[in-house]
């Protein structure tokens, strides 16, 4: 299974939090990362997004075919996020578009068994792969500025 944790791109400030949109820079970040992901990620792919507008806009840069998943909301936990993605026993590639600090803690939980406050920059991804022998490999940790 491939699990890609993608933090939403740069968003406007404001309230309500769930309705914040991507900035112009955020739209460029999302488009650049989406283009890279499209070339790299194996098929089949499933895309899950938090209900927040900024995550939906980020996911839409990659695919119009994504599922809004309440378990990825700003109030979610790392364990809920991983369950929603089907980690570690799922199949194919699952791209999760969500929020900090949950994404960083989910990466830590998937790799170490402990939810720790790991950083994920705006628009960045952590790509984890679980092989048939139950080993977990970090395929990429990439921010949009590196593209």
Give an overview of the whole structure.
The chain is an alpha/beta fold. It has a single domain, classed as Phosphoglycerate mutase-like (Rossmann fold, 3-Layer(aba) Sandwich). The protein is 31% helix and 22% strand. It contains 4 helices and 6 strands, in the order E-H-E-H-E-H-E-H-E-E. It starts with a strand and ends in a 5-residue tail after the last strand.
Descriptive terms for the model:
147 residues; alpha/beta; Rossmann fold; six-stranded mixed sheet; 4 helices; 6 strands; 22% strand
How would you write the strand order of the largest sheet? 3-2-4-1-5-6
Euclidean distance between termini CA atoms: 24 Å
- Coarse structural class: alpha/beta
Q: CATH top level?
A: Alpha Beta
Number of domains: 1
Shape annotation: globular
β-strand percent reads 15-25%
- Average pLDDT reading: 97
Enumerate how many helices there are, as a single number. Answer: 4
Q: Let me know the largest β-sheet.
A: 6 strands, mixed
Low-confidence stretches: none
CATH architecture: 3-Layer(aba) Sandwich
CATH superfamily: Phosphoglycerate mutase-like
Q: What is the CATH topology assignment?
A: Rossmann fold
């Amino acid at each position: 299974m491939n699990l890609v944790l993608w933090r939403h791109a740069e968003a406007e400030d404001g309230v309500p939090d769930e309705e914040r949109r991507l900035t112009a820079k955020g739209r460029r970040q999302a488009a650049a990362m989406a283009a890279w992901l499209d070339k790299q990620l194996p098929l089949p792919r499933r895309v899950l997004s938090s209900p927040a507008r900024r995550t939906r806009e980020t996911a839409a840069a990659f695919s119009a075919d994504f599922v809004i998943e309440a378990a990825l909301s700003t109030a979610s936990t790392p364990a809920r996020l991983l369950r929603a993605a089907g980690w570690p026993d799922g199949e194919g590639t699952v791209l999760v578009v969500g929020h900090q600090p949950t994404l960083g803690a989910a990466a830590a939980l998937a790799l170490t068994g402990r939810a720790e406050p790991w950083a994920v920059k705006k628009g960045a991804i952590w790509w984890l792969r679980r092989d048939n022998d139950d080993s977990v490999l970090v395929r990429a940790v990439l921010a949009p500025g590196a593209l």
